[in-house]
Amino acid sequence: MSLFSQLKGSLAFLCYLLNTLFWAIPILFFGIIKLIPLKIIDKICSYITDNCASAWIYGNTLTEKILHPVTFEITGDTNFDRKQWYMVIANHQSWVDILVLQRILNGKIPFLKFFLKQELLYVPVLGLVWWALDFPFMRRFSNAQLKKNPKLKGKDIEITRKACEKFKTKPVSVMNFVEGTRFSQSKHDKQSSSFQHLLKPKAGGMAFALSAMGEHINKLVNVTIYYPEKVPSFWEYLCGQTTHIKVDIKITDIPPTMRGDYINDRQFKIDFQEQLNQFWLNKDKQLQQYYSSHSAKESLSTKSCKPEKEV
């Protein structure tokens, strides 16, 4: 990576930081005002904070266009409605995925609310901003913790339900990386994943969210993200090492078969996981097509670059 690229990356990071700090002030201010126990105040402040967050993303996008421009190749469905409730799922390979989703969906659907790990609440500035924006923080308990304290069983589900209850008052987009973590070959091998380019999807969080939201949320946005050059780190992305990203979007109705009691209904749990696995199987096939097509283009390009033999 050249020194010039690293300088551009440093400048881009500074712009992202200043933009974040600028919008964090009004978001945190109205986030605190929301603590007043009046529904009308909570609703008004939620609209204000979401609009501030949307402006924050537009600022980040402007920095990207100027300092590290990327060509987005978007296919599939793009007919969105900002008055609709959406469940958004996507494959997860890098922190850059979040920037990609925010850029392509910002202003087209209600502001994205991500499921976050409880530990991210303590990230400086951003943790409080995510709290003020009503991002659902998930707390997972290990088998060892559950054995030591059986009362914790079902606590994570209850936390999810309470977080999603807030989303019934106005249109929202709930984002869930159902793999639970970023893809890596070591994680893939450890799981013995049956998918070639994906980790196994975890159905619990998505099922609980759909159950908690009830009929309010009825559209599924299934996003497939592919980086033709290589999966970038956040720093590589800022330094302009990524110039092309492919994104495919599929919008479908959420079928009645994906709504039910995931905890107590064993058959529903099995059926839900099978449906999610089918989504993932289709996504894996699509990614394989992307990889195969890219390999073929690279092979053709290599052949065309070879000098002709003298006769």
Question: Would you mind describing this structure in some detail?
Answer:
With 311 residues, this protein is an alpha/beta fold. The chain has helices spanning 3-33, 39-67, 96-105, 126-132, 143-148, 155-165, 185-191, 204-213, 234-238, 266-305; strands at residues 71-76, 86-90, 112-114, 116-117, 137-138, 173-176, 219-226, 244-253. The strands form 2 sheets. A 6-stranded mixed β-sheet has the order 1-8-7-2-6-3, sandwiched between helices. A two-stranded parallel ribbon has the order 4-5. Strand 4, helix 4 (126-132) and strand 5 form a beta-alpha-beta unit. The chain is globular, with a radius of gyration of 21 Å. The mean pLDDT is 87.
Draw up the topology in text.
Elements: H1 3-33, H2 39-67, E1 71-76, E2 86-90, H3 96-105, E3 112-114, E4 116-117, H4 126-132, E5 137-138, H5 143-148, H6 155-165, E6 173-176, H7 185-191, H8 204-213, E7 219-226, H9 234-238, E8 244-253, H10 266-305
Helix pairs in contact: 1-2, 1-4, 6-8
